[in-house]
Amino acid sequence: MQFFGGSEISPSPPMPTASGNNGHMMYIFNRNGICLLYREWNRPLKTLSSQQDYKLMFGLLFSLKSLTAKMDPTSVEKGNLGVPQLPGQGCSFHSFRTNTYKLSFMESPSGIKIILVTHPRTGDQRESLKYIYNLYVEYVVKNPLYSPGNPIQCELFNTTVDQYVRGLG
Amino acid sequence: MAAIYSLYIINKSGGLIFYKDYGSAGRMDTNDSLRLASLWHSMHAISQQLSPVSGCAGIELLQADTFDLHCFQSLTGNSSPLSTMPWIIRTKFFVVCEPGTVHMEALLKHIYELYTDYVLKNPFYEMEMPIRCELFDINLAQAVQKDRVALLAR
Question: How far is A166 from chain B (nearest CA, A)?
Answer without folding.
Answer: 17
